[in-house]
Structure prediction request, 434 residues.
Amino acid sequence: MPSTSLSLFLKSLLLFLILSALSACATVKKPLTGIVAGREVETLQSSISVSVKSGEHTTSGRGYLIYKSPDRFHLALLSPFGLTVFEVFIDGEDITCLVPSKQMAYRGRFSQLPDNSPLQSMAIMKWVQVRPAPGTVPPGTKETTDPSGDHYYFDENGLVDRKVSPDGDKVAYQDYSNLDGVAFPESIVIGSRFGTVVKIIFDEPQINQPVEEAALKPVTEGYNVRPLTEFKGF
Amino acid sequence: MTRLFIALLALLITAFSAHAADPAVEALETLRRGFAGTSDFTAEITQEKHLALMKKKMVSKGTVRFKKPDTFFMELYPPHPSRLMLKDNVMTMRLPEQSVTEKVVLPPEEGLKKWFSFLGKPITSLPEGADVKAERRGRFWNLQIFPKKQGAVKQLALTFDLEGKISRIVIDERNKDQTILSFKNVRRNVGLKDADFRVE
Prediction:
């Protein structure tokens, strides 16, 4: 359960954690059959379990995630009793955070954030989404570095096992299974350059099913809407 | 979260001065008496989270336990396993599948001991912080609570019997999500031990 002491920075990490899940073109440690070449995750809806470890502090919780390609998603974190305690909507460069218990909403664009804002770390989302195009990696490749300096490690099936940025951000994909022809990880672990480790476990994910527009659009009626720069946590 | 549990207690406690004939007061007092006469309890719980924006619902089953003066425990089984213990104002939460345990210290005013210490006083009025409606049908009360303060919760609905045993709590959120907590096999004063409240 997310605590009120969860730092803004850690929360932001949850966001790109989610995106890493979406880039699940990645890898399988055991042979998978029925994977359809070229098929990717266009939409995702899943219950999730999340843990965030930063230094001595660990925070965990569960919630759900809704994603629609290329860059829209809705993440909600729940309390142990099931109440929604925090929601984030991202639509390209736009981000909206909702804190239902306080009826507060924070809206803005990534570009409006000061350089020292912890929310800047969400810029990694773009990095997480970048991956080798299907078929561009020769069979048998174990490692490769793309022009940007990102280093990919592949498993025996030629899928991305993990990815490391020149700055030290890492993403690992674990326990793949076949979901409607797409190799999809049961869990993902992200280690940021700042030392934070985030793990997400998907529960019965549904991919490429219709996602209603309303599911990706924040409803701020009745909320006190403030600039994103004022967001201090929930 | 724990605030929900505490809010329920607060409703019982802050109600101090109205018409005994008001069914809402009678219902609250029934609930209060039920807590006051209980040294501990255990129950099976089913938690259903209905997401307004998703077709599926998240269902968890588990158990809850309480022991006076200040200990509450809830364990949910897979697929969303978790164990939570609230010892006065210290909450410990474990997600076994994440191998993570965390401890959160709540503000002292949110501690269980403080609230339960008030349960000796009969409820004679409705709380000021919420509109409360109640209806009795046979052996059961249906109590509806509408918080006046803007917050995540739009409405709480509780179903309990004449002994104050809660069988169902429905929480409607303003974002149109709904959580239903159903309780079965509620047993009181069974002599729970500290060993029954282990998170690890």
